[in-house]
Amino acid sequence: MVNGPFDPVAYVGILKRTRRRRLYFFATVLMYIPALLITYQISPTNRAMGTLFGIWVVVLIIVTFLAAVSRCPRCGNYFHVHGLTLLILRKCLHCQLHISSDTLPNS
Ligand SMILES: [Zn+2]
Fold this sequence. Notes:
By secondary structure, the chain is mainly alpha-helical. The chain has helices at 8-30, 32-42, 46-68, and strands at residues 81-82, 85-86. The chain has a two-stranded antiparallel ribbon. β1 and β2 form a beta hairpin. It binds zinc ion (ZN).
């Protein structure tokens, strides 16, 4: 199927990129409280906290956008977006393709 529309190398690459973007998203969400505590230890001022929050929101917007525009390699739709709804789940919201379907033995 080299000449067909299905390209296994691109398929695996797209799924890996989608998993990496999901990792960035969850890492950004989870690092807020530790970053807040570290910043509080260094400089417990409202200005420092506000600056950290502003930086975190900008990074969160960027990683959420990257996760949202990830396309499903099977159906071609956005993997995590259905209509206006963004759901960072493990399956494609359109064709139910699992995020690790390239590594699961029964797929
Ligand atoms: Zn899909």
